[in-house]
Fold Exostosin GT47 domain-containing protein.
Amino acid sequence: MLAAVQEEKAIQRGVLPVLRRATLVQTFGQKNHVCLREGSITIPPYAPPHKIRAHIVPPETPRSIFVYFRGLFYDTANDPEGGYYARGARASVWENFKNNALFDISTEHPPTYYEDMQRAIFCLCPLGWAPWSPRLVEAVVFGCIPVIIADDIVLPFADAIPWEEIAVFVPEDDVLRLDTILTSIPMDEILRKQRLLANPSMKQAMLFPQPAEPRDAFHQVLNGLARKLPHPKDVFLKPGQKVLNWTEGAQDDLKPW
């Protein structure tokens, strides 16, 4: 027994320093969360690229739905009174806008779900038990302006995805004003966001296709990791150079992140 305890302590002495220098790669983060360390890489949750690409509608398809959402409003199994799930934000959406003609919202998940998102202008992306879901990935891929209702969300790949430019952020306390907020957005701003979302690089950066493709989410992770390796800022791949030596940086760069 003593030998086992000593072995465990030895393992901890060896592992913990490594973990302190490790980079945590995780799906959409949450501000001030115990698992979200400074220097972590936030990635999008997985959405099946082959399934998404099988449901692409013609680009000329009109966006005839103003606001779209399919999902739970209450998690009665885990929160019978409906006060804790999504901090009440989803319940407020349902109670206040279920009869609003501008809102196409339901708990049903139709087989045309992907097609419907491509016919919508705004796609609601409220928090659930966590601040994120694959719905945000789907909205970006399908060119539907994400309406992010999650005060403490940390979004992925901020250097590749201009979230402030392509999305609408609604504070959880302002859910009751959701219709006013969205209808007051000028048309030229909506069109600008749609043009940005139409950029193929936006969609590519959110997906993990198999095999990997240039500028996809896997490569965004590699880019994030590469930035953390010890190297001077002027180390870049030169014209004609195929291999970059990321280890040629100064020793001073070998400090914890």
The two ends are 37 Å apart (CA to CA). The beta strands are 25-27, 29-30, 41-43, 65-70, 103-106, 120-126, 145-149, 153-154, 168-169. Confidence is low (pLDDT under 50) at residues 253-257. The longest helix spans residues 2-20.
